[in-house]
């Protein structure tokens, strides 16, 4: 792949025709539902950073298949995408694109991931990746039979006591957006605040370990 974001993907060793050879990364996120909350919080932190990086890159990369089975964790704890065949690539410098941010309002289906290729490819920016990560993998209604309550379920009491807005930020980032224009920026704001809290939580946990 001609992506600058190679750290998010397995190493590619070679290809011939329709056959490619790449690294085996490790267990998928759906196979890691049993790990500690702090480990899952670190995976969530990385997913939010991926969403931010892909959304602001020179060529936008939009995630359209957010199953927990499509992301794996290597031996160093790094989250990687192991199924990238459904990523949408957009050049925001193309003339004629809408310069106002596209908002994925999450409408079209209640319990499935909805989006429009026309909208993703017709705008210079969108909050789509934040919706994909928060709704698809972090929220209490995630798209996973193995982990339907999301990666950030059941935080310890010391986390909720110090960071009472953590759950609200997750659900605001994941939620269907109100059509009132005053509410439209909330998803990015919630995602950035959620990421900041996770960074602080993980730092504090490391200091006290």
UniProtKB/TrEMBL annotation:
The keyword Secreted applies. GO terms for cellular component: extracellular region. It is found in: Secreted. Keywords: Secreted, Signal. Residues 2-174 form the FAM69 protein-kinase domain. InterPro entries: DIPK2A/B, FAM69_kinase_dom, Kinase-like_dom_sf. The keyword Acetylation does not apply. Its main location: secreted. Belongs to the DIPK family. This is FAM69 protein-kinase domain-containing protein. It comes from Scylla paramamosain.
């Amino acid at each position: 792949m001609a992506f600058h974001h190679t750290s998010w993907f397995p190493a590619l060793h070679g290809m011939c025709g329709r056959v490619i050879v790449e690294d085996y990364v490790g267990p998928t996120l759906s196979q890691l539902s049993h790990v500690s909350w702090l480990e899952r919080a670190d995976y969530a932190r990385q997913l939010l950073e991926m969403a931010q990086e892909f959304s602001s890159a020179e060529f936008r990369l939009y995630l359209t298949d957010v199953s927990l089975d499509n992301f794996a964790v290597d031996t160093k704890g790094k989250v990687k995408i192991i199924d990238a065949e459904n990523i949408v690539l957009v050049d925001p410098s193309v003339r004629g694109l809408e310069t106002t941010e596209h908002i994925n309002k999450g409408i079209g289906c209640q319990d499935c991931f909805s989006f429009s290729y026309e909208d993703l490819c017709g705008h210079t920016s969108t909050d789509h990746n934040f919706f994909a990560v928060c709704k698809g993998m972090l929220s209490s209604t995630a798209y996973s039979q193995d982990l339907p309550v999301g990666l950030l379920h059941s935080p310890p009491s010391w986390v909720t006591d110090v960071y009472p807005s953590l759950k609200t930020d997750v659900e605001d980032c994941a939620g269907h957006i109100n059509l009132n224009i005053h509410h439209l920026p909330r998803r990015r704001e919630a995602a950035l605040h959620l990421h900041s809290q996770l960074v602080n939580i993980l730092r504090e946990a490391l200091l006290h370990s």
